[in-house]
């Protein structure tokens, strides 16, 4: 099977035209993230103009919540998850300047207001704490060039408490290692320039054991393989410079087998229903491994490397 | 979307789905619009709560609807509304449980349950007593035990279990807190044993064990094995030996063994460390020989484990030159039997060499 680039592009292009599907309406709460996944996949496939730039920007701005953040959809609540996707897309589209300085200030204030005394972040004011939210906060502040020593030190302290016996990281201190949480923790430590805190041998070993005989990667021991871990595991390996610790050819084959070669899109594993989430993470994985003439992806930000190269690096001068 | 089989619908079936969806879409959009309008009108009534339940039943991932739900509950409490709050909160618990049974991996439902329980002590009612609150947490522990029986690896379940026991420990009065924590840690340690006995590959349970052991060694329950670390280590190694012999291919207990040795050995006299390592090495070598007899090939985890042991022996001061040679032999075998991770094993050859050179310079 070969990489169905044109079909994937058409698949993503058609996503916003599925108003006849019940699922379209049931997924409004994920629309901002979904748009980020779609746009990023298109950019990596060198087709950034498939979604009209002005429409994307107009949608993002229509999701602004008076609380300072962005919701997933107009009239939905501002949340860190959708705020990060909004900021990432504006950066990818080189459109951060559509935000007035005072608007940037209110986004920054929203994010910072969600940091707790122990350095962790809650996703919104209702208190769910998770290393995902630490990553989303730090990533968004980094894109906006607005990290501070207080924010960074707290986040780093919290993340280091989430390390486990196997070298991995979990959602909170005490929680089991999970490859997606590893990505959020290692990504945070990469942005904050504290990879020295990671037991890279032990973590790299655990991550490399995620590859199964069929080439796919799982997120935890004794679990099924899933294309999204082509990103969570692979990007984490790339960040600690151990991308070569798994078999690329076999993973490549697994991702291609998970494509829908008729209607486009990639699914969690072969013969399952495709979705935009697995599509972008499958493609981003292929990009990290250097397959298929894709745009180079940044393993920390999951955005085109050419975009992230422009971000201010921590510690600031 | 996870685990949903792909289907390519025929034109006829597509049309059929379109018609079915069109009714569902109309219902959902009407309800959604009502909820958004009620919320924007700051309507915090029991009627709105009921409508909100209908919407969340259709879409439990709708986080803004969960937020509205909490706003309603907070507003009712603030206004000291004429409702039976204990009953209301119990119904919230019932509501989330109902949906957790359908969607045991939905973050927002778990999050709401936690929120409800955290606000339980604040509800305006004379019925709220320490005994009632203790009973609430006991019930939660029973619920999550049941859930972990159905899916023993659900990380939401394990996370929730740690949250509940944390809350239970915090309930103890100040001077009892230490003792309560130790007692709970001990109960949880027994729980991991029970889960592992049911399924040796329960990585979540091994993980949990790795979190409890340091706590228990630091504050051992009176009369327990944890008061005597080296005896604890011997017992634990025997337990692990059984696991290795039962399923040598599963990584869970091997990783736990590695951690346990790294954690406990350095606290012991060097002679005892070496004796323990020699003993474990003997067990693993013997197991590997059996594996070779059965399968004609070395067992990967046995080789990896022998490598860890030799590295520890090197640290303590065995015959360094010989140990390095033996490690390199092990790694060469690993390259052969585990080609997917060839890059890792080749890096290991390099780092063993570099380490040794630095030591000898």
From TrEMBL, chain A:
Q: Name one GO biological process term.
A: protein localization to membrane
Q: Name one GO cellular component term.
A: geranylgeranyltransferase-III complex
Q: Matching InterPro entries, A to Z?
A: PGGT1B-like (IPR045089), Prenyltrans (IPR001330), Ptb1 (IPR026873), Terpenoid_cyclase/PrenylTrfase (IPR008930)
Q: Which cofactor does it need?
A: Zn(2+)
What reaction(s) does this enzyme catalyze?
Answer: geranylgeranyl diphosphate + L-cysteinyl-[protein] = S-geranylgeranyl-L-cysteinyl-[protein] + diphosphate
Keyword list, A-Z: Metal-binding, Prenyltransferase, Repeat, Transferase, Zinc
Q: Which GO terms describe its molecular function?
A: metal ion binding; Rab geranylgeranyltransferase activity
Q: Which CDD domains match?
A: GGTase-II
Q: Does the keyword rRNA processing apply?
A: no
What does the entry comment about cofactor binding? Binds 1 zinc ion per subunit.
Record domain Prenyltransferase alpha-alpha toroid: where = 3-303
- The UniProt entry's coiled-coil ranges are none
Q: Family per UniProt? A: Belongs to the protein prenyltransferase subunit beta family.
Q: How does it assemble?
A: Heterodimer of an alpha and a beta subunit.
What function does this protein fulfil? Catalyzes the transfer of a geranylgeranyl moiety from geranylgeranyl diphosphate to both cysteines of proteins with the C-terminal sequence -XXCC, -XCXC and -CCXX.
Protein name in the entry = Geranylgeranyl transferase type-2 subunit beta
UniProtKB/TrEMBL annotation, chain B:
CC per GO annotation: Rab-protein geranylgeranyltransferase complex
Kindly state a single biological-process term from the GO annotations of this entry: prenylation
Native organism taxonomy: Eukaryota, Fungi, Dikarya, Ascomycota, Saccharomycotina
Q: Which family does it belong to?
A: Belongs to the protein prenyltransferase subunit alpha family.
Q: Which GO terms describe its molecular function?
A: Rab geranylgeranyltransferase activity
Q: List the SUPFAM superfamilies hit by this protein, alphabetically.
A: Protein prenylyltransferase
The record lists the organism as Babjeviella inositovora NRRL Y-12698
Tell me the domain of life.
Eukaryota
What single Pfam family name could you report for this chain, choosing any that match? PPTA
* Record keywords: Prenyltransferase, Repeat, Transferase
Region feature (Disordered): 1-21
- List the transmembrane segments: none
Protein's name in the database: Geranylgeranyl transferase type-2 subunit alpha
User: Which function does this protein serve?
Assistant: Catalyzes the transfer of a geranyl-geranyl moiety from geranyl-geranyl pyrophosphate to cysteines occuring in specific C-terminal amino acid sequences.
- EC number in record: 2.5.1.60
Catalytic activity field: geranylgeranyl diphosphate + L-cysteinyl-[protein] = S-geranylgeranyl-L-cysteinyl-[protein] + diphosphate
């Amino acid at each position: 099977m070969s990489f169905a680039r044109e079909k994937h592009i058409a698949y993503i292009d058609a996503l916003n035209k599925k108003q006849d599907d019940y699922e379209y309406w049931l997924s409004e709460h994920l629309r901002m993230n979904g748009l980020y996944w779609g746009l990023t996949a298109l950019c990596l496939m060198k087709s950034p103009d498939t979604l009209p730039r002005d429409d994307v920007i107009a949608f993002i701005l229509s999701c602004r919540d008076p609380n300072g953040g962005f919701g997933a959809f107009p009239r939905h609540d501002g949340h860190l998850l959708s705020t990060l996707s909004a900021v990432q897309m504006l950066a990818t589209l080189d459109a951060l300047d559509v935000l007035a300085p005072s608007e940037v200030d209110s986004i920054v204030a929203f994010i910072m207001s969600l940091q707790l005394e122990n350095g962790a972040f809650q996703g919104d004011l209702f208190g769910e704490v998770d290393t995902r939210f630490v990553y989303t906060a730090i990533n968004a502040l980094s894109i906006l060039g607005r990290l501070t020593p207080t924010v960074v030190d707290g986040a780093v302290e919290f993340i280091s408490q989430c390390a486990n016996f196997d070298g991995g990281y979990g959602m909170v201190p005490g929680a089991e290692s999970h490859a997606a949480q590893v990505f959020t923790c290692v990504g945070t430590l990469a942005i904050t320039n504290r990879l020295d805190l990671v037991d890279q041998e032990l973590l790299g070993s655990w991550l490399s054991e995620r590859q199964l005989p069929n080439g796919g990667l799982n997120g935890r021991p004794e679990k099924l393989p899933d294309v999204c871990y082509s990103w969570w595991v692979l990007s984490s390996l790339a960040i600690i410079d151990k991308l070569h610790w798994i078999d690329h050819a076999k993973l490549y084959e697994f991702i291609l087998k998970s494509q829908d070669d008729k209607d486009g899109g990639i699914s969690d594993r072969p013969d399952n229903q495709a979705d935009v989430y697995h599509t972008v993470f499958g493609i981003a994985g292929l990009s990290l491994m250097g397959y298929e003439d894709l745009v180079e992806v940044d393993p920390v930000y999951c955005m085109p490397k050419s975009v992230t190269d422009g971000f201010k690096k921590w510690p600031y001068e | 979307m996870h685990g949903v089989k792909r289907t390519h619908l025929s034109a006829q079936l597509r049309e059929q789905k379109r018609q079915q969806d069109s009714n569902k879409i109309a219902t959902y959009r009407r309800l959604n619009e009502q909820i958004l309008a009620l919320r924007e009108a700051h309507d915090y009534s029991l009627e709105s709560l009921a409508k909100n339940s209908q919407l969340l039943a259709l879409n439990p991932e709708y986080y803004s609807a969960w937020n509205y739900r909490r706003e309603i509950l907070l507003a009712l409490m603030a206004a000291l509304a004429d409702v039976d709050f204990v009953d209301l909160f119990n119904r919230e618990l019932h509501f989330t449980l109902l949906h957790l049974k359908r969607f045991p991996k939905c973050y927002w439902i778990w999050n709401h349950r936690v929120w409800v329980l955290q606000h339980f002590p604040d509800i305006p009612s004379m019925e709220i007593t320490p005994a009632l609150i203790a009973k609430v947490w006991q019930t939660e522990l029973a619920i999550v035990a049941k859930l972990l029986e159905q899916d023993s690896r659900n990380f939401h379940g394990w996370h929730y279990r740690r949250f509940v026991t944390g809350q239970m420990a915090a309930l103890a009065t100040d001077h009892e807190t230490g003792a309560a924590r130790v007692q709970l840690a001990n109960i949880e340690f027994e729980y991991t044993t029970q889960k592992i006995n049911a399924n040796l590959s329960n990585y979540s349970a091994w993980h949990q064990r790795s979190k409890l052991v340091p706590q228990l060694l630091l504050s051992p329950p009176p009369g327990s094995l944890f008061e005597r670390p080296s005896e604890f280590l011997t017992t634990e190694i025997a337990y692990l030996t059984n696991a290795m012999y039962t399923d040598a291919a599963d990584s869970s207990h091997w990783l736990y063994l590695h951690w346990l040795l790294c954690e406990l050995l350095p606290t012991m006299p060097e002679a005892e460390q070496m004796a323990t390592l020699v003993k474990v090495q003997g067990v693993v070598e013997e197991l590997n020989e059996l594996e070779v007899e059965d399968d004609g090939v070395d067992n990967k985890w046995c080789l990896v484990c022998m490598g860890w042991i030799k590295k520890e022996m090197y640290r303590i001061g065995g015959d360094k030159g010989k140990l390095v040679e033996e490690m390199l032999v092990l790694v060469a075998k690993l390259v052969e039997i585990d080609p997917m991770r060839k890059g890792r094993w080749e890096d290991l050859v390099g780092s063993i060499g570099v380490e040794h050179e630095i030591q000898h310079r």
